[in-house]
Amino acid sequence: MAEVGPGKYDDECTQARMSTGADAVILLIVGGNRGHGFSVQCVNEDLQNFLPMLLRDVALSIEEAATQGTAANDND
């Protein structure tokens, strides 16, 4: 089960959320100075419930881009 509460990259996630004024942030770290990890912050439960669908869409976009030999992006 995923950890609930502050994780090892929570401070960076908070910084990203605050500096962008975002309602939600998903921070995924691969090979960071504290190892792999992720942090998720949402301002409300509705957004938290929406995130799994969003992550599935992002994963499909990355997979599609990889098979086409192009870079995935956030232009949607």
Précis, in short:
This protein has 76 residues and is α+β, with helices and mostly antiparallel strands.
What does the secondary structure layout of this molecule look like, with pairings?
Elements: H1 10-20, E1 24-29, E2 37-42, H2 45-68
Antiparallel strand pairs: 1-2
Written description of the protein model:
With 76 residues, this protein is of the alpha+beta class. Helices cover 46% and strands 16% of the residues. The chain has one domain (10-68). The protein has helices at residues 10-20, 45-68, and strands at residues 24-29, 37-42. A two-stranded antiparallel sheet has the order 1-2. A hairpin with a 7-residue loop joins strand 1 and strand 2 (37-42). The N and C termini lie far apart (30 Å). The relative contact order is 0.13.
List the defining traits of the structure above.
76 residues, alpha+beta, two-stranded antiparallel ribbon, 2 helices, 46% helix, 16% strand
Number of structurally distinct domains: 1
Fraction of residues in β-strands:
15-25%
Multimer state = single chain
Order of helices and strands, N to C?
Answer: HEEH
SSE-based structural type: alpha+beta
Calculate the mean pLDDT score and round it. 88
Rg, nearest Å: 14 Å
| Terminal CA distance | 30 Å
Based on Cα principal axes, name the global outline.
globular
What's the helix count? 2
Query: What is the count of β-strands?
Result: 2
Helix content range of the residues, please? Answer: 40-55%
| Unreliable spans | none
Major sheet, described briefly? 2 strands, antiparallel
> Strand order within the widest sheet?
1-2
